[in-house]
Amino acid sequence: MMNLTIAEENYIKSIYKLEEEGQEAVSTNALAGELETKPASVTDMAKKLKEKKLISYEKYQGINLTAEGKKAALNIIRRHRLWECFLVDKLSFSWEEVHELAEELEHVRSEKLINRLSEFLGNPQIDPHGDPIPDAQGKMGKPRPQTPLDKARAKRLEVVAVSDKSTALLEFLNAKGIRLGTQLDVIERYEFDNSIELKIRNQPAFTISEQVSKNIMVKPI
Amino acid sequence: MMNLTIAEENYIKSIYKLEEEGQEAVSTNALAGELETKPASVTDMAKKLKEKKLISYEKYQGINLTAEGKKAALNIIRRHRLWECFLVDKLSFSWEEVHELAEELEHVRSEKLINRLSEFLGNPQIDPHGDPIPDAQGKMGKPRPQTPLDKARAKRLEVVAVSDKSTALLEFLNAKGIRLGTQLDVIERYEFDNSIELKIRNQPAFTISEQVSKNIMVKPI
DNA sequence: ATAATTATTTAGATTTACCTAAACTTTATT
DNA sequence: AATAAAGTTTAGGTAAATCTAAATAATTAT
Question: N or C: which end of chain B has fewer CB within 10 A?
């Protein structure tokens, strides 16, 4: 397996994620958004990753992982999710704390370490958020299709369904500008009543109750 | 606590090590040697670390850690040694394998993570090489009384630590059956090259060079 | 189909952490 | 004390990963 920098690994991971979400070819802009960087930086990196044969890329045509790139992505995801398991199962972190830490731990590249960690954890099949963990060969179970907003872990989410079709709820969502495809940023989760403070691009933040968030099905972007 | 880059952390750690080894002021050259980099690079970094008030440094006068720098160093060492414990105690790595891995894991900066890890491990006081682990406040027990094997005068000795953590040396020692707690009998010391003939219980005697014996820390039994 | 808008790329800078080669200090030697 | 040797710094350069601003291509709207 090729040796990647941390930046390269993060690009690979994000490309994988966007492909999973259904983007035929991952656009420069989408990737820049995902990585919180600028499109120009993405173009630069795309050239580098193409050189390394991890992606296919032609000017203006977007990006796709090659077989090798996909393998690399699955390996990174494996590391990430195993570390999340470790943090929750062994160090008693709660599920919303672990992503950032796993984001760092995942970049320690050692087959042996990660395989031993997996064994130590009892070769778990899913991580604390319910996402499947690829095995050492890069085989992974199917991802869960969607999560109710009150259970979602990611900060940036896209609305994929609303389960309660009552006029009351739909009117409320409409008033707030929440509809299918809307992208949400979770600003804060308040434990005392499980309400959630949300933000939609170009709008002021607002808060919704647990009752509402339970019925908004989302997926991470 | 200030936010340091990985490179900065490695410099701080090496400066600490060289100070511990008795260097009044750490020289540019010594530090370059320790970090396997060039003196010119050390001078560059020295300016940066001085700016951040982690070291005291005047042109041509060498480097010393400030109180803040020392605190940072102890924190890094704490992380390193706790990860080593984890790898050996929980993931069944052998002691010669863990240094390189811990070298990477130590750069994940999270108070909470490292304190939980310590707790998970039972707040160990020494790492797998016999070195003491600083506590959360940066207090560290004194290294166990020890002498480098090349200086020890007793005939019957016990291995308490290994000062050079390179895989090369550790692998060599492993092959010879020398590890923490191993009991050695000094058969002969050869003055012409300061090599030493040793015997471990139930094994044929063998000879090690001065280079090796310098790095094996022992105490009389 | 042409113009306007949006997306993407290029060109040129910046920062970090390195490097080499040359200049300069300090120290050791005669 | 003068000189040689060793150690250190400066000057100038490189590579990675960013950025901004300007140019160019693709898409959408008129």
Answer: N
CATH of the domain at A201: 2.30.30.90
Query: Last residue of a domain, which of B47, B65, B83?
Result: B65
Asked if A159 and A218 count as a contact pair (C-beta separation under 8 A), the reply is yes
Domain contains B110: no
Q: Which of A84, A90, A103, A121 to mutate: most B Cβ within 10 Å?
A: A90
pLDDT tens digits in sequence order for chain B, 221 residues long: 688 999 999 999 999 999 998 888 999 999 999 999 999 999 999 999 999 999 999 999 999 999 999 999 999 999 999 999 999 999 999 877 899 999 999 999 999 999 999 999 999 999 988 889 999 999 998 877 788 898 888 899 988 888 877 778 888 888 888 888 889 999 999 988 889 999 998 889 999 999 899 889 898 88
Complex ipTM > 0.85: no
d(CA A72, CA A89): 26
Nearest nucleotide, CA A43 to C1': C9
Specify the CATH number for the domain of residue B49: 1.10.10.10
How many domains is chain A partitioned into structurally? Answer: 2
Assess contact for A110 and A116: CB atoms under 8 A: no
Continuous segment of H or E residues that includes residue A44: helix A39-51
Which residue among B101, B112, B113 sits closest to A108, beta carbon to beta carbon? B101
Q: In the complex, which nucleotide's C1' lies nearest to the CA atom of residue B35? A: C18
